[in-house]
Design a protein that fits this description.
Blueprint lengths: L17 H14 L5 H4 L5 H16 L5 H14 L3 H14 L2 H8 L7 H12 L17 H21 L13 H16 L27 H14 L7 H12 L20 H11 L6 H7 L6 H38 L1
Length: about 350
């Protein structure tokens, strides 16, 4: 059977131990899939795997608000990021929520009939643009930590999937068939519709230095999960020299959410600065990472663990750029609310 993995060969899940095995156990219980390739591909770096799962679980699965609404946010993010694997996955998960007609309208590229659904989907797509006006939210303010966490989780997961997985959610692209999508969703329905207790994934995190939770998380477990992922992902900067780090981070400070042009003008040449190029591709257009890009960077000392960390570093720089603008908006909104109350 063809492998779903690109550029890396994760260990078989049956050989997992320690934190990786614990993550797989929670995935089976709360996600309904014991070994999803989006997480298996991170298994060579447990310090990334655990907070990625924690952020997704505590926002999408256990966070406040409608699961359908959060799936629409995740789908909107995936459309904005041009991640067909994740688009198909969230279409299947909409079937699992019981929203079969909605799932199939979206699979056909049509807009939702329900105006609220359409607004939530559009909001998810709009989050790719750093600094975009995202308020007023198309969901209750009390649900914002879960919806924001879902959006940020999938800005990261999309990039990992696009960089390191093939486009096929199911073997031979079987998810393209309506009956297969519906059946796959129905097999997950019981798990998706079962309430999940918040906070359980936090036990998997490294608590020596969890980092500071962002204000938009409102004291929910989403914030600690986000802080842990930020800390783990940005550690990948150590795979670049200081000049390449400066280049990559400068490009990302000025990124406006656009996809790069077809000729990838402005990105470093792979022969001259392969690490910087790979990190920037992971951030801006991970679906355009090629075998040649990886081969140009890879050295004998560069294990799969290193590759996953470099891709995660680039991917999270994009997430951090988006999140920083969210945090600024959150502060401005809080100030405005305080002024309105005086």
């Amino acid at each position: 059977m063809p492998t779903p993995f690109r550029h890396t060969e994760p260990l078989p899940p049956r050989s997992a131990t320690g934190t990786v095995a614990e993550v797989y156990a929670q995935l089976a219980l709360d996600f309904g899939i014991a070994e999803p390739s989006t997480f298996v591909v991170l298994s060579s770096a447990p310090e990334l795997l655990a907070p990625t799962w924690a952020l997704m679980r505590e926002s999408l699965i256990a966070g406040a608000g409608s699961r359908t609404g959060k799936e629409l946010v995740a789908l909107g993010v995936s459309l904005a990021n041009k991640c067909p694997f994740c688009v198909d996955a969230h279409t299947v998960l909409l079937h699992a929520t019981g929203d079969h007609a909605l799932a199939e309208r979206l699979a056909r590229g049509e807009a939702p009939r329900d105006e609220e659904h359409a607004r939530v989907l559009a909001w998810g797509r709009h989050t790719r643009v750093p600094g975009a006006a995202l308020a007023p939210y198309p969901f209750p303010r009390a649900h914002a930590p879960a919806y924001l966490g879902t959006a940020l989780a999938f800005h990261f997961i999309n990039r990992i999937a696009s960089a390191l997985l093939t486009e096929n959610l199911l073997p031979a692209g079987a998810q393209r068939f309506r009956a297969v999508r519906s059946l796959a969703g129905r097999t997950l329905a019981r798990t998706v519709r079962r309430p999940a207790r918040p906070g359980l994934a936090l036990s998997l995190l490294d608590h020596t230095d969890p980092g500071e939770a962002p204000a938009w998380a409102g004291g929910t477990p989403v914030g600690l999960a986000y802080a842990a992922l930020l800390r783990a992902a940005l550690a990948g900067a150590g795979l670049l020299d200081s000049d390449d780090q400066d280049l990559v981070e400068d490009v990302m400070r000025h990124w406006d959410g656009a996809h790069p042009p077809l000729d990838l003008a402005g990105l470093p040449d792979r022969r001259e600065r392969p690490g910087a190029r790979l990190a920037l591709l992971a951030a801006l257009a991970p679906y355009r990472i090629t075998d040649a890009d990886v081969a140009a960077w890879r050295r004998p000392e560069h294990t799969d663990h290193c590759l996953v960390h470099l891709v995660a570093y680039g991917a999270f720089l994009a997430v951090d750029r988006i999140e920083s603008s969210l945090s600024t908006q959150n502060i401005q909104e809080s100030v405005q609310l305080a002024q309105d109350g005086t």
